Amino acid sequence: MKTITAEQAAALVPSGATVTVSGLMGNMVPEAVLEAIERRFLATGSPSGITEVHPWLYGSPDGTGLNRWAHPGLLKRIIGSTYILPALSKTAEINRQIFDNGVEAYCWPANAIFQTLRAIGAGRAGFATTVGIDTFADPRRDGGRLNANAKDDLIELITLGGEEHLFYPSFPIDVALIRASSADGEGNLSCEDEGLTQGILLQATAAKNSGGIVIAQVRRVIETGSRHPLMVEVPGALIDYVVVNEAGQQWEYGKNEGTVPATTGAYREPVPEFAIPEQSAEKVIARRALMEIEPGQLVNIGGGIPGALMPMTAEEELLTDKIRWSVEHGVFGGFCLSATHWNPTAITSPGWLLDFYSGGGLDQSFLGMPEVDAAGNVNVGRFHDQLPCPGGFTDIAASTRKVTFCGTMTTGGLEVDVTQGRLDILREGRRHKFVRDVEMVCFSGRRALERGHEVKYITERAVFRLAAGGLVMEEIAPGIDCQAQVLGIADFPIRVAPDLKLMDERLFRPEPMFLGLER
To answer: Per the confidence metrics, is the pTM higher than 0.85?
Structure first.
Protein backbone atom coordinates (compact mmCIF):
# COMPACT_ATOMS: atom_id res chain seq x y z
CA MET A 1 0.00 0.00 0.00
CA LYS A 2 1.31 3.43 -0.94
CA THR A 3 -0.01 6.80 0.23
CA ILE A 4 -0.42 9.28 -2.63
CA THR A 5 -2.17 12.57 -3.37
CA ALA A 6 -5.53 12.87 -5.09
CA GLU A 7 -3.74 14.26 -8.16
CA GLN A 8 -1.42 11.28 -8.27
CA ALA A 9 -4.42 8.97 -7.95
CA ALA A 10 -6.16 10.71 -10.86
CA ALA A 11 -3.06 10.17 -13.01
CA LEU A 12 -3.34 6.39 -12.45
CA VAL A 13 -6.72 6.14 -14.22
CA PRO A 14 -6.02 5.36 -17.89
CA SER A 15 -8.21 6.26 -20.85
CA GLY A 16 -10.59 3.47 -21.80
CA ALA A 17 -10.60 2.01 -18.29
CA THR A 18 -13.59 0.45 -16.58
CA VAL A 19 -13.95 2.12 -13.17
CA THR A 20 -16.25 1.25 -10.27
CA VAL A 21 -16.96 3.96 -7.68
CA SER A 22 -18.38 3.73 -4.15
CA GLY A 23 -20.84 6.05 -2.50
CA LEU A 24 -24.46 6.80 -1.70
CA MET A 25 -25.51 10.41 -2.19
CA GLY A 26 -22.89 12.12 0.03
CA ASN A 27 -21.77 9.06 2.01
CA MET A 28 -18.50 7.18 1.30
CA VAL A 29 -17.85 9.10 -1.92
CA PRO A 30 -14.14 9.43 -2.86
CA GLU A 31 -14.90 13.05 -3.76
CA ALA A 32 -11.32 14.35 -3.58
CA VAL A 33 -10.17 11.76 -6.14
CA LEU A 34 -13.19 12.38 -8.38
CA GLU A 35 -12.49 16.11 -8.30
CA ALA A 36 -8.87 15.48 -9.25
CA ILE A 37 -9.92 13.26 -12.18
CA GLU A 38 -12.28 15.99 -13.36
CA ARG A 39 -9.53 18.63 -13.15
CA ARG A 40 -7.11 16.40 -15.04
CA PHE A 41 -9.63 15.77 -17.82
CA LEU A 42 -10.52 19.45 -18.20
CA ALA A 43 -6.82 20.35 -18.36
CA THR A 44 -5.53 17.52 -20.58
CA GLY A 45 -8.45 15.62 -22.11
CA SER A 46 -7.47 12.50 -20.18
CA PRO A 47 -8.67 10.08 -19.04
CA SER A 48 -11.27 9.65 -21.76
CA GLY A 49 -13.59 6.90 -22.93
CA ILE A 50 -14.21 5.64 -19.37
CA THR A 51 -16.80 2.99 -18.50
CA GLU A 52 -18.14 3.89 -15.05
CA VAL A 53 -20.03 1.40 -12.81
CA HIS A 54 -21.82 2.39 -9.58
CA PRO A 55 -24.12 0.31 -7.36
CA TRP A 56 -25.76 3.42 -5.83
CA LEU A 57 -26.03 7.01 -6.92
CA TYR A 58 -23.39 9.31 -5.48
CA GLY A 59 -23.49 13.07 -5.63
CA SER A 60 -26.14 15.55 -4.59
CA PRO A 61 -25.61 19.21 -5.49
CA ASP A 62 -24.78 19.94 -9.11
CA GLY A 63 -21.09 19.51 -9.82
CA THR A 64 -20.56 16.77 -7.24
CA GLY A 65 -20.22 12.99 -7.41
CA LEU A 66 -21.58 11.48 -10.62
CA ASN A 67 -21.84 14.92 -12.16
CA ARG A 68 -18.02 15.15 -12.25
CA TRP A 69 -18.09 12.58 -15.07
CA ALA A 70 -20.52 14.65 -17.18
CA HIS A 71 -18.02 16.19 -19.60
CA PRO A 72 -18.16 15.26 -23.30
CA GLY A 73 -15.56 12.59 -24.02
CA LEU A 74 -14.77 11.65 -20.44
CA LEU A 75 -17.29 8.79 -20.37
CA LYS A 76 -17.96 6.17 -23.02
CA ARG A 77 -20.46 4.17 -20.98
CA ILE A 78 -22.13 4.39 -17.57
CA ILE A 79 -23.91 1.60 -15.67
CA GLY A 80 -25.77 2.34 -12.45
CA SER A 81 -28.81 1.38 -10.44
CA THR A 82 -29.65 5.00 -9.69
CA TYR A 83 -28.86 8.43 -11.08
CA ILE A 84 -29.38 11.85 -9.50
CA LEU A 85 -32.77 12.01 -7.79
CA PRO A 86 -35.11 14.94 -8.55
CA ALA A 87 -35.28 15.62 -4.81
CA LEU A 88 -31.52 16.28 -4.88
CA SER A 89 -31.31 18.17 -8.18
CA LYS A 90 -33.59 18.66 -11.17
CA THR A 91 -30.68 20.00 -13.25
CA ALA A 92 -28.11 17.23 -12.71
CA GLU A 93 -25.43 17.32 -15.39
CA ILE A 94 -25.04 13.53 -15.68
CA ASN A 95 -28.78 13.03 -16.16
CA ARG A 96 -28.78 15.71 -18.84
CA GLN A 97 -25.88 14.04 -20.63
CA ILE A 98 -27.80 10.74 -20.65
CA PHE A 99 -30.92 12.37 -22.12
CA ASP A 100 -28.76 14.13 -24.74
CA ASN A 101 -27.11 10.83 -25.78
CA GLY A 102 -23.68 12.05 -24.71
CA VAL A 103 -22.87 8.63 -23.22
CA GLU A 104 -24.02 5.01 -23.52
CA ALA A 105 -26.26 4.80 -20.45
CA TYR A 106 -27.61 1.69 -18.72
CA CYS A 107 -29.61 1.01 -15.59
CA TRP A 108 -29.41 -2.29 -13.70
CA PRO A 109 -31.13 -3.29 -10.46
CA ALA A 110 -28.78 -2.61 -7.55
CA ASN A 111 -28.19 -6.22 -6.62
CA ALA A 112 -27.38 -7.12 -10.22
CA ILE A 113 -24.45 -4.70 -9.95
CA PHE A 114 -23.29 -5.96 -6.56
CA GLN A 115 -23.54 -9.61 -7.59
CA THR A 116 -21.90 -9.05 -10.98
CA LEU A 117 -19.00 -7.43 -9.10
CA ARG A 118 -18.94 -10.49 -6.85
CA ALA A 119 -18.89 -12.77 -9.91
CA ILE A 120 -16.05 -10.76 -11.46
CA GLY A 121 -14.02 -11.00 -8.26
CA ALA A 122 -14.67 -14.75 -8.03
CA GLY A 123 -13.71 -15.38 -11.66
CA ARG A 124 -17.21 -16.57 -12.57
CA ALA A 125 -18.89 -16.10 -15.93
CA GLY A 126 -21.51 -13.76 -14.54
CA PHE A 127 -24.64 -13.47 -12.42
CA ALA A 128 -28.03 -15.05 -13.13
CA THR A 129 -31.26 -14.08 -11.36
CA THR A 130 -35.03 -14.22 -11.74
CA VAL A 131 -35.30 -10.69 -10.31
CA GLY A 132 -36.12 -8.20 -13.03
CA ILE A 133 -38.06 -10.50 -15.34
CA ASP A 134 -40.72 -8.42 -17.17
CA THR A 135 -39.19 -5.13 -15.97
CA PHE A 136 -36.93 -2.53 -17.59
CA ALA A 137 -33.98 -4.94 -17.20
CA ASP A 138 -35.60 -7.66 -19.31
CA PRO A 139 -34.23 -7.68 -22.90
CA ARG A 140 -37.81 -8.06 -24.10
CA ARG A 141 -38.47 -4.60 -22.70
CA ASP A 142 -35.48 -2.23 -22.44
CA GLY A 143 -32.64 -4.56 -21.49
CA GLY A 144 -31.43 -1.89 -19.08
CA ARG A 145 -30.89 0.69 -21.85
CA LEU A 146 -31.58 4.32 -20.98
CA ASN A 147 -30.90 6.07 -24.29
CA ALA A 148 -30.38 5.56 -28.01
CA ASN A 149 -26.58 5.38 -27.64
CA ALA A 150 -26.91 2.27 -25.48
CA LYS A 151 -26.93 -0.25 -28.33
CA ASP A 152 -25.14 -3.24 -26.82
CA ASP A 153 -27.00 -6.16 -25.24
CA LEU A 154 -25.51 -6.23 -21.75
CA ILE A 155 -28.22 -8.43 -20.21
CA GLU A 156 -29.15 -11.84 -21.62
CA LEU A 157 -32.35 -13.85 -21.21
CA ILE A 158 -31.49 -17.47 -20.44
CA THR A 159 -33.22 -20.58 -19.08
CA LEU A 160 -31.87 -22.39 -16.01
CA GLY A 161 -33.67 -25.38 -14.53
CA GLY A 162 -36.59 -24.70 -16.79
CA GLU A 163 -37.05 -21.12 -15.49
CA GLU A 164 -36.29 -17.82 -17.18
CA HIS A 165 -33.37 -15.85 -15.72
CA LEU A 166 -31.61 -12.61 -16.55
CA PHE A 167 -27.87 -13.15 -17.00
CA TYR A 168 -25.31 -10.39 -16.45
CA PRO A 169 -21.96 -11.43 -17.99
CA SER A 170 -18.76 -10.54 -16.12
CA PHE A 171 -16.32 -7.93 -17.45
CA PRO A 172 -12.93 -6.77 -16.11
CA ILE A 173 -12.70 -3.87 -13.66
CA ASP A 174 -9.56 -1.79 -14.17
CA VAL A 175 -9.90 0.64 -11.25
CA ALA A 176 -11.91 0.66 -8.02
CA LEU A 177 -12.29 4.09 -6.42
CA ILE A 178 -13.62 3.56 -2.90
CA ARG A 179 -13.78 5.40 0.40
CA ALA A 180 -13.50 4.35 4.03
CA SER A 181 -12.82 5.99 7.38
CA SER A 182 -9.32 4.71 8.16
CA ALA A 183 -6.45 2.75 6.65
CA ASP A 184 -3.70 1.28 8.77
CA GLY A 185 -0.07 1.02 7.70
CA GLU A 186 -0.83 -2.17 5.72
CA GLY A 187 -3.85 -0.66 3.96
CA ASN A 188 -6.53 -2.45 6.02
CA LEU A 189 -9.70 -0.35 5.70
CA SER A 190 -12.35 0.26 8.36
CA CYS A 191 -15.64 2.19 8.15
CA GLU A 192 -16.16 3.21 11.77
CA ASP A 193 -17.31 6.75 10.93
CA GLU A 194 -19.58 6.00 7.97
CA GLY A 195 -22.72 4.22 9.24
CA LEU A 196 -22.61 2.07 6.08
CA THR A 197 -20.12 -0.12 4.23
CA GLN A 198 -21.48 0.33 0.70
CA GLY A 199 -20.13 -2.94 -0.74
CA ILE A 200 -16.58 -1.61 -1.08
CA LEU A 201 -15.19 -5.11 -0.47
CA LEU A 202 -16.93 -6.41 -3.60
CA GLN A 203 -15.65 -3.47 -5.64
CA ALA A 204 -12.08 -3.89 -4.43
CA THR A 205 -12.13 -7.65 -5.04
CA ALA A 206 -13.47 -7.23 -8.57
CA ALA A 207 -10.69 -4.80 -9.50
CA LYS A 208 -7.90 -6.71 -7.76
CA ASN A 209 -8.79 -10.05 -9.35
CA SER A 210 -9.20 -8.40 -12.75
CA GLY A 211 -5.58 -7.31 -12.57
CA GLY A 212 -6.64 -3.73 -11.89
CA ILE A 213 -5.83 -1.30 -9.09
CA VAL A 214 -7.70 -0.25 -5.94
CA ILE A 215 -7.51 3.35 -4.74
CA ALA A 216 -9.02 4.12 -1.33
CA GLN A 217 -9.72 7.59 -0.01
CA VAL A 218 -9.70 7.75 3.81
CA ARG A 219 -9.78 10.37 6.54
CA ARG A 220 -6.68 9.09 8.31
CA VAL A 221 -3.87 6.52 8.35
CA ILE A 222 -3.57 4.75 11.70
CA GLU A 223 -1.04 2.47 13.32
CA THR A 224 -0.85 -1.02 11.87
CA GLY A 225 -2.91 -3.46 13.91
CA SER A 226 -4.66 -0.75 15.95
CA ARG A 227 -8.12 -1.74 14.69
CA HIS A 228 -9.80 -4.94 15.86
CA PRO A 229 -9.62 -7.42 12.96
CA LEU A 230 -13.41 -7.74 12.94
CA MET A 231 -13.61 -4.02 12.10
CA VAL A 232 -11.61 -4.41 8.89
CA GLU A 233 -13.97 -4.10 5.94
CA VAL A 234 -11.34 -4.50 3.20
CA PRO A 235 -8.04 -6.32 3.89
CA GLY A 236 -4.91 -4.39 3.03
CA ALA A 237 -3.86 -7.08 0.57
CA LEU A 238 -6.45 -5.64 -1.83
CA ILE A 239 -5.42 -1.99 -1.51
CA ASP A 240 -2.81 -0.49 -3.83
CA TYR A 241 -3.03 3.22 -3.01
CA VAL A 242 -4.46 5.38 -0.23
CA VAL A 243 -5.42 9.04 -0.53
CA VAL A 244 -5.81 10.89 2.78
CA ASN A 245 -8.46 13.61 2.99
CA GLU A 246 -8.56 14.77 6.61
CA ALA A 247 -11.53 17.04 5.92
CA GLY A 248 -13.76 14.09 5.04
CA GLN A 249 -17.16 13.72 6.71
CA GLN A 250 -19.69 10.93 7.04
CA TRP A 251 -21.88 12.90 4.61
CA GLU A 252 -19.78 15.11 2.36
CA TYR A 253 -22.69 17.24 1.15
CA GLY A 254 -26.46 17.39 0.91
CA LYS A 255 -29.07 17.84 3.64
CA ASN A 256 -27.25 15.38 5.95
CA GLU A 257 -23.84 17.07 5.61
CA GLY A 258 -21.63 16.33 8.57
CA THR A 259 -21.14 13.34 10.89
CA VAL A 260 -23.75 11.82 13.21
CA PRO A 261 -22.07 9.30 15.58
CA ALA A 262 -25.44 7.86 16.71
CA THR A 263 -25.90 6.50 13.16
CA THR A 264 -22.44 4.91 12.97
CA GLY A 265 -22.58 2.70 16.06
CA ALA A 266 -20.03 4.88 17.89
CA TYR A 267 -22.53 5.31 20.73
CA ARG A 268 -26.25 5.30 21.35
CA GLU A 269 -28.33 8.42 21.94
CA PRO A 270 -32.03 9.05 22.53
CA VAL A 271 -33.88 9.65 19.28
CA PRO A 272 -33.90 13.43 18.81
CA GLU A 273 -37.20 15.18 19.20
CA PHE A 274 -38.89 16.01 15.93
CA ALA A 275 -42.06 17.78 14.98
CA ILE A 276 -44.97 15.39 14.63
CA PRO A 277 -46.04 15.54 10.98
CA GLU A 278 -49.21 17.52 10.51
CA GLN A 279 -52.31 15.81 9.20
CA SER A 280 -52.11 15.51 5.42
CA ALA A 281 -52.88 13.19 2.53
CA GLU A 282 -49.42 11.71 2.89
CA LYS A 283 -49.83 11.07 6.62
CA VAL A 284 -53.15 9.33 5.98
CA ILE A 285 -51.28 6.98 3.64
CA ALA A 286 -48.48 6.36 6.16
CA ARG A 287 -51.00 5.58 8.90
CA ARG A 288 -52.96 3.23 6.68
CA ALA A 289 -49.72 1.50 5.68
CA LEU A 290 -48.81 0.92 9.33
CA MET A 291 -52.11 -0.90 9.74
CA GLU A 292 -50.76 -3.63 7.42
CA ILE A 293 -47.89 -4.53 9.77
CA GLU A 294 -47.97 -7.27 12.40
CA PRO A 295 -45.83 -7.09 15.56
CA GLY A 296 -42.23 -8.19 15.13
CA GLN A 297 -42.23 -8.20 11.36
CA LEU A 298 -39.07 -7.31 9.43
CA VAL A 299 -40.08 -4.42 7.21
CA ASN A 300 -38.32 -2.56 4.43
CA ILE A 301 -39.35 0.99 3.55
CA GLY A 302 -38.38 2.80 0.39
CA GLY A 303 -38.25 6.40 -0.75
CA GLY A 304 -41.20 8.75 -0.81
CA ILE A 305 -44.00 8.49 1.74
CA PRO A 306 -42.78 5.22 3.35
CA GLY A 307 -39.30 6.45 4.22
CA ALA A 308 -40.32 10.03 4.93
CA LEU A 309 -43.36 9.43 7.13
CA MET A 310 -43.80 5.83 8.29
CA PRO A 311 -41.02 5.84 10.95
CA MET A 312 -42.12 9.20 12.39
CA THR A 313 -45.77 8.17 12.35
CA ALA A 314 -44.86 4.88 14.02
CA GLU A 315 -43.05 6.86 16.72
CA GLU A 316 -46.15 8.99 17.27
CA GLU A 317 -48.26 5.84 17.52
CA LEU A 318 -45.78 4.27 20.02
CA LEU A 319 -45.05 1.43 17.61
CA THR A 320 -41.31 1.79 17.05
CA ASP A 321 -40.36 -1.11 19.32
CA LYS A 322 -42.87 -3.40 17.59
CA ILE A 323 -41.42 -3.04 14.10
CA ARG A 324 -38.01 -4.15 12.85
CA TRP A 325 -36.95 -1.70 10.16
CA SER A 326 -34.42 -2.58 7.48
CA VAL A 327 -33.08 -0.57 4.54
CA GLU A 328 -31.31 -2.12 1.56
CA HIS A 329 -28.17 -0.07 2.12
CA GLY A 330 -27.28 -2.56 4.84
CA VAL A 331 -28.84 -1.40 8.10
CA PHE A 332 -31.06 -3.12 10.67
CA GLY A 333 -32.86 -1.83 13.75
CA GLY A 334 -33.03 1.49 15.51
CA PHE A 335 -34.98 4.46 14.22
CA CYS A 336 -34.99 4.52 10.43
CA LEU A 337 -33.54 7.65 8.83
CA SER A 338 -33.70 6.34 5.25
CA ALA A 339 -30.10 5.52 4.28
CA THR A 340 -28.85 5.18 7.86
CA HIS A 341 -30.55 4.46 11.18
CA TRP A 342 -30.36 6.19 14.54
CA ASN A 343 -29.01 3.61 17.02
CA PRO A 344 -28.72 0.79 14.47
CA THR A 345 -28.50 -2.77 15.82
CA ALA A 346 -26.53 -4.08 12.82
CA ILE A 347 -24.67 -2.59 9.86
CA THR A 348 -24.15 -5.15 7.12
CA SER A 349 -23.14 -5.36 3.48
CA PRO A 350 -25.81 -4.25 0.97
CA GLY A 351 -24.76 -7.09 -1.34
CA TRP A 352 -25.59 -9.61 1.38
CA LEU A 353 -28.75 -7.82 2.48
CA LEU A 354 -30.17 -7.62 -1.05
CA ASP A 355 -29.49 -11.35 -1.41
CA PHE A 356 -31.40 -11.90 1.83
CA TYR A 357 -34.26 -9.85 0.44
CA SER A 358 -34.17 -11.69 -2.88
CA GLY A 359 -34.46 -15.00 -1.08
CA GLY A 360 -37.68 -13.88 0.61
CA GLY A 361 -36.26 -12.72 3.96
CA LEU A 362 -38.57 -9.73 4.34
CA ASP A 363 -42.05 -9.97 5.81
CA GLN A 364 -43.26 -6.82 4.07
CA SER A 365 -42.05 -3.90 1.97
CA PHE A 366 -43.55 -0.44 1.64
CA LEU A 367 -42.45 1.42 -1.47
CA GLY A 368 -43.23 4.63 -3.34
CA MET A 369 -45.73 4.83 -6.17
CA PRO A 370 -45.13 7.70 -8.61
CA GLU A 371 -46.93 5.82 -11.44
CA VAL A 372 -49.07 2.68 -11.60
CA ASP A 373 -50.76 1.25 -14.69
CA ALA A 374 -53.58 -1.07 -15.68
CA ALA A 375 -51.45 -4.20 -15.20
CA GLY A 376 -50.36 -3.10 -11.71
CA ASN A 377 -46.87 -2.19 -12.93
CA VAL A 378 -45.13 0.57 -10.98
CA ASN A 379 -42.62 3.14 -12.21
CA VAL A 380 -40.17 4.90 -9.90
CA GLY A 381 -37.33 5.28 -12.40
CA ARG A 382 -38.10 7.69 -15.23
CA PHE A 383 -40.40 10.68 -15.57
CA HIS A 384 -40.05 12.73 -18.73
CA ASP A 385 -36.88 14.76 -18.09
CA GLN A 386 -36.09 13.27 -14.66
CA LEU A 387 -34.09 10.04 -14.28
CA PRO A 388 -33.80 8.79 -10.70
CA CYS A 389 -33.84 5.07 -11.74
CA PRO A 390 -34.93 2.43 -9.21
CA GLY A 391 -31.84 1.48 -7.17
CA GLY A 392 -32.87 -1.46 -4.97
CA PHE A 393 -36.59 -0.98 -5.64
CA THR A 394 -36.85 -3.73 -8.26
CA ASP A 395 -34.92 -6.22 -6.11
CA ILE A 396 -37.21 -5.54 -3.14
CA ALA A 397 -40.53 -5.30 -4.96
CA ALA A 398 -39.93 -8.49 -6.94
CA SER A 399 -38.93 -10.56 -3.93
CA THR A 400 -41.17 -9.58 -1.02
CA ARG A 401 -44.14 -11.85 -0.36
CA LYS A 402 -46.30 -8.85 0.53
CA VAL A 403 -45.52 -5.48 -1.01
CA THR A 404 -47.51 -2.29 -0.51
CA PHE A 405 -47.10 0.74 -2.75
CA CYS A 406 -47.87 4.12 -1.23
CA GLY A 407 -48.74 7.37 -2.97
CA THR A 408 -51.42 9.96 -3.63
CA MET A 409 -53.69 9.42 -6.64
CA THR A 410 -52.76 12.80 -8.10
CA THR A 411 -49.84 15.16 -7.60
CA GLY A 412 -48.91 18.73 -8.42
CA GLY A 413 -51.10 20.99 -6.32
CA LEU A 414 -53.27 18.41 -4.55
CA GLU A 415 -54.95 19.99 -1.51
CA VAL A 416 -57.10 18.06 0.96
CA ASP A 417 -58.79 18.45 4.33
CA VAL A 418 -58.43 15.42 6.62
CA THR A 419 -59.43 16.73 10.05
CA GLN A 420 -63.07 15.77 10.49
CA GLY A 421 -63.00 12.00 10.10
CA ARG A 422 -63.41 12.26 6.34
CA LEU A 423 -61.43 13.28 3.28
CA ASP A 424 -62.38 16.38 1.32
CA ILE A 425 -60.53 17.17 -1.92
CA LEU A 426 -60.10 20.96 -1.94
CA ARG A 427 -58.07 21.01 -5.14
CA GLU A 428 -57.18 18.10 -7.38
CA GLY A 429 -53.58 17.55 -8.44
CA ARG A 430 -52.60 18.41 -12.00
CA ARG A 431 -51.01 15.04 -12.80
CA HIS A 432 -52.76 11.70 -12.48
CA LYS A 433 -50.58 8.82 -11.26
CA PHE A 434 -52.87 5.99 -12.39
CA VAL A 435 -51.90 5.86 -16.07
CA ARG A 436 -52.61 3.43 -18.87
CA ASP A 437 -48.93 2.51 -19.34
CA VAL A 438 -46.06 3.49 -17.06
CA GLU A 439 -42.98 5.07 -18.61
CA MET A 440 -40.55 2.53 -17.07
CA VAL A 441 -41.61 -0.82 -15.62
CA CYS A 442 -39.73 -1.11 -12.31
CA PHE A 443 -42.20 -3.58 -10.78
CA SER A 444 -44.09 -6.16 -12.82
CA GLY A 445 -47.66 -6.81 -11.74
CA ARG A 446 -47.89 -9.86 -14.01
CA ARG A 447 -44.80 -11.40 -12.48
CA ALA A 448 -46.07 -10.79 -8.93
CA LEU A 449 -49.34 -12.55 -9.70
CA GLU A 450 -47.48 -15.50 -11.23
CA ARG A 451 -45.46 -15.87 -8.02
CA GLY A 452 -48.50 -15.60 -5.75
CA HIS A 453 -47.40 -12.39 -4.05
CA GLU A 454 -49.83 -10.09 -2.25
CA VAL A 455 -49.78 -6.57 -3.68
CA LYS A 456 -51.61 -3.49 -2.39
CA TYR A 457 -51.72 0.15 -3.44
CA ILE A 458 -52.58 2.62 -0.67
CA THR A 459 -53.67 6.15 -1.54
CA GLU A 460 -55.25 8.92 0.49
CA ARG A 461 -58.69 8.19 -0.94
CA ALA A 462 -58.78 4.44 -1.65
CA VAL A 463 -56.96 1.16 -1.15
CA PHE A 464 -56.51 -1.25 -4.07
CA ARG A 465 -55.44 -4.88 -4.43
CA LEU A 466 -53.79 -6.45 -7.46
CA ALA A 467 -55.78 -9.36 -8.87
CA ALA A 468 -55.99 -11.21 -12.15
CA GLY A 469 -57.30 -8.70 -14.64
CA GLY A 470 -56.01 -5.61 -12.84
CA LEU A 471 -56.68 -3.47 -9.78
CA VAL A 472 -59.63 -3.96 -7.43
CA MET A 473 -60.74 -1.18 -5.09
CA GLU A 474 -61.30 -2.63 -1.60
CA GLU A 475 -61.60 0.50 0.57
CA ILE A 476 -62.71 4.08 0.00
CA ALA A 477 -62.28 7.13 2.21
CA PRO A 478 -65.28 8.64 3.96
CA GLY A 479 -66.42 11.71 2.00
CA ILE A 480 -65.07 10.55 -1.37
CA ASP A 481 -67.24 10.14 -4.48
CA CYS A 482 -66.28 6.73 -5.87
CA GLN A 483 -66.94 7.53 -9.51
CA ALA A 484 -65.84 11.16 -9.76
CA GLN A 485 -62.86 11.13 -7.40
CA VAL A 486 -61.44 7.62 -7.81
CA LEU A 487 -62.59 5.67 -10.86
CA GLY A 488 -62.94 8.82 -12.94
CA ILE A 489 -59.36 10.00 -12.45
CA ALA A 490 -57.69 6.70 -13.40
CA ASP A 491 -56.74 6.24 -17.04
CA PHE A 492 -57.84 2.59 -16.96
CA PRO A 493 -60.81 0.62 -15.61
CA ILE A 494 -60.70 -0.39 -11.94
CA ARG A 495 -63.06 -2.96 -10.51
CA VAL A 496 -64.88 -2.32 -7.25
CA ALA A 497 -65.00 -5.10 -4.68
CA PRO A 498 -68.55 -6.24 -3.91
CA ASP A 499 -67.81 -5.77 -0.20
CA LEU A 500 -66.23 -2.31 -0.58
CA LYS A 501 -65.35 -0.95 2.88
CA LEU A 502 -64.83 2.50 4.29
CA MET A 503 -61.30 3.37 5.36
CA ASP A 504 -61.03 3.78 9.14
CA GLU A 505 -62.27 7.29 9.95
CA ARG A 506 -59.49 7.65 12.57
CA LEU A 507 -57.09 8.01 9.65
CA PHE A 508 -58.69 11.35 8.90
CA ARG A 509 -58.44 12.88 12.36
CA PRO A 510 -55.40 14.72 13.78
CA GLU A 511 -55.09 12.82 17.07
CA PRO A 512 -53.02 9.58 17.27
CA MET A 513 -54.87 6.39 16.40
CA PHE A 514 -53.00 4.22 18.94
CA LEU A 515 -53.00 1.33 16.54
CA GLY A 516 -51.13 -1.07 18.82
CA LEU A 517 -50.74 -3.60 15.97
CA GLU A 518 -52.87 -6.03 17.97
CA ARG A 519 -53.29 -9.17 15.91
So the answer is: yes
